[in-house]
Amino acid sequence: MSTPDIRMVDLHRQYQRLKPQIDAAMAEVLSATTFIKGPQVTRFEQNLATYFGRTEVVSCGNGTDALQLALMALRLPAGAEIIVPSFTFVASAEVIALLGFTPVFADCNADTFNLTADIVEPLINTKTAAIIPVHLFGQCVDMEPLMALAEKHGLWVIEDNCQAIGANYIDSTGHKKKAGTIGHIGCTSFFPSKNLGCFGDGGAVFTSDPVLAKRIRAIANHGMEQRYYHNAIGINSRLDSLQAAVLDVKLTQLDDFNARRRTAATFYNKALSGIDAIQTPVQHTKSTHVYHQYTLKVEPVFRDELRQHLTKTGIPSMIYYPVPLHRQAAYVQYANQRLPISEQLSDSVLSLPMHTELTTIELAYIADAITAFFRP
Ligand SMILES: *Cc1c(COP(=O)(O)O)cnc(C)c1O
To answer: Who contacts 106 (Cβ-Cβ below 8 Å, separation ≥6)?
Structure first.
């Protein structure tokens, strides 16, 4: 059998499948030449707000800007501490440091890779102003106890929902809420490889607080509500009309995209569950999983060798993330902090190809290669 052409993320095949609709949507922008703040942007914001159910949506330049806008809108006092996981993409913490606030790195749960209220609670002190839970790899942080903790201490909660758009959180009464709509503010990214990705950079901020929404919209536009009158120091961060047009098409497919990811994950789970040296992803009972990444935990002694074996077999894989943030050179002042679970995870995680176009033949090829490595 010839080696299948397997990619970590296959945007090419997804585009081929949606080409007629996407090309038509882009052609509409090109002929109207409404490249910035065109009607496509407003339409997409409204459709996304409808998808999330009532929450106000402000689109912006990328997911990192979304987090920065959220923090700027909260008008936190100088010296504020913000609790954020160490085992995440750097953007979650970068914006805190960039704005002159202090990131306080938290460890995570070894099975879900996410923050929990129990981990956060001991880190709270009088300087703590906010928590940034990250819904890592596509499933929600257990938000109910976290929101209760935040309420008790008067803290803001900004959800970093860059990896879990479309996931549902199910609270203890059985009520479903979309990831990104539970905290005071939610942030997402439309980077091409995210579950809802555009053809460049893009992002959005969600909130159901109209005062915050208005402030965020102004900050994203140079602090301007009325043209050339600047009430606050802002930034320039916008989603352009071409990206909004692409996203509006893809939004209609988001639930289908996530279902396709889940189907692939179910295949992997079944095929790999019997291998002792591997732990397949653990799904929290209070969240659906949209598998932004399908991430195995592999016994550290085998991880890098397994990865080499996969590369030789024509299968890409990635380590998200090889170094937790408190061990990064840019955050050297945290070098002595010990966050044992985050550190162990960096030595054991391995993410397999995960996207909307994986075929059963490809999934079987990948699973067989992993099985063959452990049972030659
Ligand atoms: C992708 C990502 C971001 C940043 O999004 P960009 O659009 O690349 O700026 C932030 N946080 C997490 C967890 C992400 O995965």
So the answer is: 83, 84, 85, 86, 115, 119, 120, 123, 339
Q: What is the pLDDT of residues 197-224, one digit of tens each?
A: 999 999 999 999 999 999 999 999 999 9
Q: Which atom of ligand 1 is nearest to the CA of 67?
A: 10
High-pLDDT (> 90) share of the chain, %: 97
Q: Is residue 3 a part of any domain in this protein?
A: no
Q: Which domain holds residue 292?
A: 254-374
> Which residue's CA is the closest to the ligand 1 atom numbered 6?
63
Residues 232 and 281 in one domain: no
Q: Is the pTM of this model over 0.90?
A: yes
Q: What is the CATH number of the domain that holds 367?
A: 3.90.1150.10
CB-ligand 1 contact for 91 (6 Å cutoff):
yes
Amino acid at 18: L
- Tell which atom from ligand 1 comes closest to the C-alpha of 201: 7
Same domain assignment for residues 135 and 99:
yes
Mean pLDDT of the chain: 97
Average pLDDT over residues 174-189: 97
Residues 152 and 191 in one domain: yes
Ligand 1 centre and the CA of 137: distance in Å? 11
Torsion sign across C-alpha atoms 267, 269, 274, 277: positive
Name the residue with the closest Cα to ligand 1, atom 3: 63
On whether residue 287 sits in a domain, the answer given is: yes
**Considering only CA atoms, which residue is closest to atom 2 of ligand 1?**
162
How far apart are alpha carbons 323 and 93 in whole angstroms? 14
